[in-house]
Design a protein that fits this description.
With about 150 residues, this protein is an all-alpha fold. About 75% of the residues lie in helices and about 0% in strands.
Length: about 150
């Protein structure tokens, strides 16, 4: 299987979006959002990467069990409380924080990508802490970008 330019761009944009939210850097968030919106394929890879990292973050929680709800840890919830987001995105993020189930709200692709990105960062913070989360995202970005 070959990796396309759109795939690398989308996956990198997702990681940059998450790093931008973690750093509270609105310029980085805007740049990552714009990079992911270049074409539908890039946007799809961006959403897929954010969704996959959310799944990884849920499974990384030492208290995770497939037999009970995957409730987000307090550090993640606390971080989310300081993040400005539109109402529909906020509702979906809180639904994911409560039980880990996919949101049932009608969201466009960009909103859904944001939901997955914010949820992944918050859950990583609950597991790794803020600095550990940034190191984790930087490692993944280096692997994706090949640098």
């Amino acid at each position: 299987m070959t990796t396309s330019t759109e795939q690398i761009a989308g996956e990198t944009a997702a990681l940059d979006l998450m790093r931008g939210y973690l750093a509270a850097d609105p310029d980085a968030i805007a740049a990552a959002t714009a990079a992911g919106a270049v074409c539908p394929t890039t946007a799809a890879y961006m959403r897929q990467q954010a969704s996959g990292l959310l799944t990884d973050a849920v499974l990384a929680d030492p208290d995770f069990s497939p037999y009970r709800r995957a409730v987000m840890g307090p550090a993640g919830i606390e971080w989310l409380e300081g993040i400005p987001m539109e109402a529909a995105v906020g509702e979906a993020v809180l639904a994911l924080a409560d039980d880990g189930a996919a949101p049932r709200l009608v969201l466009d692709d960009a909103q859904l990508t944001t939901v997955f990105a914010l949820s992944a960062v918050a859950r990583c913070i609950a597991v790794y802490g803020r600095e550990g989360t940034m190191r984790h995202l930087n490692r993944i970005r280096s692997a994706v970008a090949g640098s």
